[in-house]
Task: structure prediction
Amino acid sequence: MLIELNQSVASRAGVYSRGQIVDVPDTLAKPWIESGHASPVDPVGSEPGTDADQQSESEPEVESEEESLTENAEQVDEDVPSDTDEYSEMTVAELRDAAKTEDLSTSGTKAELLARLRGE
Result:
């Protein structure tokens, strides 16, 4: 899903800056949109070149944020909703696949799998 970020957000997929337009999985996009961290972007109705212009404008912001990532790490962490992440809406089977990919144990309940995948 194509979204525009209203504030900086961090996930296992990476760190995204405010104003950046990114294509992320629906499991990430929906909670971010619901919590106000992002807004959906409609690529069909947009003018040609608009998305590319907005992305190129946000690139210097990303580079400068990467340079000062250690300084901004606490701020980015505060922007991430603690109760939503990429695993929260997955089924047990999907969580087991994700755990297997991360070389983690695939046994246990959904809560145990979530805790393992989140590093808790």
